Amino acid sequence: MGLQHFGNLCVTIDGFCEFENDWYNNTRPQHNSSQEYEWYNLWPDLQAYPFIDSSSQRPEKVALLRNTAPYALFDPVSYRSGPENELTGRSYYVIVPATAGKVTANEGNDAWYTTESTAPGRADGDSSFKFQVKRGRPPLRCWQNDTWFYGSWSGTMKNLLRDDEHGSPVRLSPAIAHILREEFLVPMIVNIGQSLNAGALKSSTRLLHRDNALDAEAAAAEHDMLRLALAAG
Fold first, then answer.
1. Does 123 have pLDDT greater than 50?
2. Residue 221 to residue 17: CA distance in whole angstroms
3. What pLDDT was estimated at residue 165?
4. Nearest C-alpha neighbor of 147 from the set 137, 157, 133
5. What is the pTM (predicted TM-score) of this model?
6. Which residues contact 115 (CB under 8 A, 6 or more apart)?
């Protein structure tokens, strides 16, 4: 990337995720379609997040598909313009799991993979499997902090790219600044999750049957996030 002249430039990243059990709305078809979707209300209360734009406060849906690999939607938020965003390096995003209805031969109790019995006659049941993942699996609300260092200086990405007295001692070319801005505008976990699509979750790599049956006992949201964090690093 042309950063060989800035060998002392580095970034540290930390973050946190929390399940939002109240964001699930319901399961219903969309318009005249017979395909069922799980619907979630993202960011229903923005009072604690005044810097997040109201456009992020929207419904999101994932298809309820039994015979496909589990996947997740990765939704970065949009931010309001204003001084409250100038000095923060914190980014927010949401991960909505599409694991509900997936069949499995064993029980699971993880938040994303909690199972129930596949009762005969259920539309999403399959008599060849004893269990399926319950509906309404909670999304993850996450934040990430990026702190850049160069010698004794430290700051956010915005500080790094500012070319004034409030900026960093690093003088980057416009091309390099553009690349950094594009690469780190959204948390890397979001970029990787969107790129991998159905392969983003570790559980999608441990399917037990040609019908994409899960190993619900071994699956966990923590394992999925660890896989993404390692890929992002």
1. no
2. 11
3. 64
4. 157
5. 0.85
6. 104, 106, 107, 108, 109, 131, 132, 133, 134, 216
